[in-house]
């Protein structure tokens, strides 16, 4: 079968190559992939970010956002059977560490990932541990279900702390997950959602997904605009997705005193913080890492069933897997939001 892999170190280094169809071992499932999404983490791997370079053995089949059909199960598998439709959780958790045993498997200290530590889902078939397969309660389009892994991060971010219901919310960074968070926040009852991004395409889509106000940080002071839109108070919830220092500072500055600051995007380098000012502003800080397993999944399904979600604007391209490298190029050129790869 043809797979899309990172084959050589350094920037780029992607190639389509032939790989033998895998077989599941004990505790594993063989999944026929029907749709998979290119993620920001895949772009980091493309750019060979240091934290990826330190742990990846090449060649490695990329991809960790997927939906498909279970074809075969290995010995000891009990949660799913052949024919089940599933989406993949990307955190392969150990189940035995302190975090896993205290209902925080999303923070497992031994977490591994498809597409990094094991071969991923940019292939027709992939073998993964049974523990990361989330069975669809009913059959739905795989092109939609392939978005559930990133959607779960948006749900986690919007539900953490005080939630968003009845509160004004600022979304800093409107990549695919930030855009999903716009939609989720509105679905959960935020009184106002302010979307911030310098990319005109992303801001346009943020409006389509329910944002009440749009701010281009290259043209406006985000904090000043946010306060003007909230009667001078600032937002009660700032969720930072951009992973940039300007985005981090703007999201914090736009926050009402004592508000929730939820950090999702990982800055590439340390950010200097004035702790005296931090103490005076009193933000309540939440670090958002992945999805709560399986709470975020159950919540996203409930939202999906409510009819309040509309994820279609996030999917900018559907490409055959054979054109997967083009999907990366479109993202890097700023011409794509979330390309889906469809195995043939």
Overview features:
single chain; Rossmann fold; 344 residues; 2 domains; Quinone Oxidoreductase, Chain A, domain 1; alpha/beta; 7-stranded mixed beta sheet
Helix content: 25-40%
Strands, total number: 16
**CATH architecture label of the largest domain:** Alpha-Beta Complex
The largest sheet is: 7 strands, mixed
Uncertain runs are: none
Order of helices and strands: EEEHHEEEHEEHHEHEHEHEHEHEHEHE
So how many helices?
12
Write down the overall geometry.
globular
User: What is the average of the pLDDT values?
Assistant: 96
CATH superfamily of the largest domain: Medium-chain alcohol dehydrogenases, catalytic domain
What report would you give on this structure?
With 344 residues, the chain is an alpha/beta fold. The chain folds into two domains: 2-147 and 311-342, Quinone Oxidoreductase, Chain A, domain 1 (Alpha-Beta Complex), CATH 3.90.180; 154-287, 3-Layer(aba) Sandwich (Rossmann fold). Helix content is 28%, strand content 25%. It has twelve helices and 16 strands. The strands form three sheets. Strands 3, 5, 6, 7, 8, 15 and 16 form a seven-stranded mixed sheet that branches. Helix 5 (148-159) packs across helix 6 (176-187) and helix 5 crosses helix 11. It is globular and about 60 Å long.
């Amino acid at each position: 079968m043809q797979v899309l892999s990172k084959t050589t170190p350094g920037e780029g280094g992607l190639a389509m190559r032939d790989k033998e169809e895998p077989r599941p071992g004990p505790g594993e499932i063989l999944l026929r992939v029907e749709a998979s999404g290119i993620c920001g983490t895949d772009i980091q791997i493309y750019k060979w970010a240091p934290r990826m370079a330190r742990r990846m053995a090449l060649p490695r089949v990329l991809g960790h956002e997927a939906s498909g059909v279970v074809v075969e199960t290995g010995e000891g598998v009990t949660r799913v059977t052949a024919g089940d439709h599933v989406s993949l959780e990307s955190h392969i958790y150990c189940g035995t560490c302190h975090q896993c045993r205290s209902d925080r498997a999303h923070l497992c200290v031994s977490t591994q990932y498809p597409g990094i530590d094991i071969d991923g889902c940019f292939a027709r078939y992939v073998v993964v541990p049974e523990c990361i397969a989330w069975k669809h309660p009913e059959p739905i389009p795989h092109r939609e279900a392939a978005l559930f892994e990133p959607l779960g991060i948006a749900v986690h971010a919007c539900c953490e702390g005080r939630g968003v219901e009845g509160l004004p919310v600022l979304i800093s960074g409107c990549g695919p997950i930030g855009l999903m968070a716009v939609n989720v926040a509105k679905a959960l009852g935020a009184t106002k959602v302010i979307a911030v991004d310098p990319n005109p395409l992303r801001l346009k889509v943020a409006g389509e997904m329910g944002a009440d106000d749009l701010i281009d940080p290259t043209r406006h002071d985000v904090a000043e605009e946010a306060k003007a839109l909230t009667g001078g108070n600032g937002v009660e919830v700032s969720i930072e997705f951009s992973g940039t220092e300007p985005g981090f500072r703007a999201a914090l500055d736009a926050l009402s005193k004592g508000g929730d600051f939820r950090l999702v995007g990982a800055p590439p380098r340390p950010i200097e913080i004035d702790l005296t000012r931090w103490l005076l502003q009193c933000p309540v800080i939440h670090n958002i890492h992945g999805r709560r397993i399986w709470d975020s999944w159950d919540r996203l399904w409930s939202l999906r069933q409510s009819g309040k979600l509309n994820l279609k604007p996030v999917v900018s391209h559907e490409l055959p897997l054979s054109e997967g490298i083009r999907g990366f190029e479109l993202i890097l050129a700023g011409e794509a939001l979330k390309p889906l790869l469809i195995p043939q």
